[in-house]
Please model this.
Amino acid sequence: MHPPLLPDLHRQRLLCAALLWLLAGSVLLLTTLIPLHTDLLGWTPAFWLLGAPLVVLLVLEPSLPRQLLALCRPRRHALHRAVWH
Model:
């Protein structure tokens, strides 16, 4: 039995929140306002600012890494067909 799917609007809001969380965390870490690693907290800031939103994104959109890889890969088949036909 499959769990009930989230309503589309609720899912989109969660995706938006996770993306904003990831963006804000990246900015905070890149500007060194929050260090990546501390003696007191260890890697906790990096996890909560980068790792946790990535996990949320992957749970909401499991096919996201595959889609991003497809966008980054060159279209060899289309180029190959254009050359040989």
In short: The chain has a mean pLDDT of 84. The two ends are 49 Å apart (CA to CA). The longest helix spans residues 8-30. DSSP finds four helices and no strands in the chain.
